[in-house]
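Box 3.1 A note on notation
Throughout this textbook, protein chains are presented in two layers. The first layer is the amino acid sequence; the second is a token string describing backbone geometry. Keep the layers aligned when reading.
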Amino acid sequence: MILPWQQATWRRLVDGLPTLHHALLLAGPAGQGKRQFAEAAAARLLCEAPGVRDFACGKCEACQWVQADSHPDLLRLVPDLDGDTGEDPEGKDGGKAKSAQIRIEQVRALTPILTVTAHRGGRRVVIVDPAEAMNPFTANALLKLLEEPPAGVVFLLVSARPMRLLPTLRSRCQRWDFPMPSAEAVAGWLRDSHPGTPQELVDLVGGAPLAAADLSGRGGQGLRSRLVADLTARPGVDPVRLAGQWEAWLRGKEAQAAGLDLAMLVGWVQRWVTDLAALRLGGIPRYFPDQGRALAAIAGTMTVADALACYNDFIALRRVSQHPLNSRLMMEDMLIRYCRAVGGGGP
């Protein structure tokens, strides 16, 4: 599926097929369709009878295999958690815990596959998504393949944080940037494809249309409303008690259905703090514009130094939110810092 704001980039792909670089880095903010573009590009590269509009025909044998997720020349490097089919409810695979990273064993397994002739005698495509899920060891293993690419292989690296990739890895790729679509394009697409998606969720995810639509379908509006209510319930908020309530909240059915985990929650609070800092410095809120009055009232209790210190604290917290040693203690620390900064108490 090619989204409306990707048309020019798709044209670039089709026009450049004869001399296409062996490794493309599809870089841009999350939630605006890079993964869909990569899948459509892979289907087009493997299609044996491209349609008149330069898309995969969807009818040839190769396309049918792609649609059935069984094409032997389409390979994916994704974290274990993303590739989970649901057949392993305990989150184990051969006794090994599912990983949020792309493991070096996955890259090593590619080598024998890519050194033989393609099953269909044409191209082979390797999608790496998200590329920043590779640790340095995994990235170096992939680098060896990119330095001496097997004939006919195209690597598609999808990344929302390309600067986290090794410089040597980035240097072996041709970077294609995917900027965030305009607000008008987002509004039009949501109106046609996902009517009912609240603007508040579009703002919360920074204008990313696919992320907003997905969050809306999972009940994200209710979760956002609770977050706002908790963050504006001051003074007198007990951060330790609220951390306990949030711990139970994250374990609840509503939060789990929406995919709300600690990392996402920290990210949402960080965006709230970002809006507070913006207001304190004379700017406007970006992520919670509908809460302008509440944000302004809170920002008015903060000094510029407090606002900037809180903002920096949350940048540091966000970095470790994926792998906290103790999630309850991390939430307590987060809320204590927030309450202190806004004058809401705390130890």
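The first helix runs from residue 7 to 15. The domain at 218-342 is CATH 1.20.272 (Zinc Finger, Delta Prime; domain 3).
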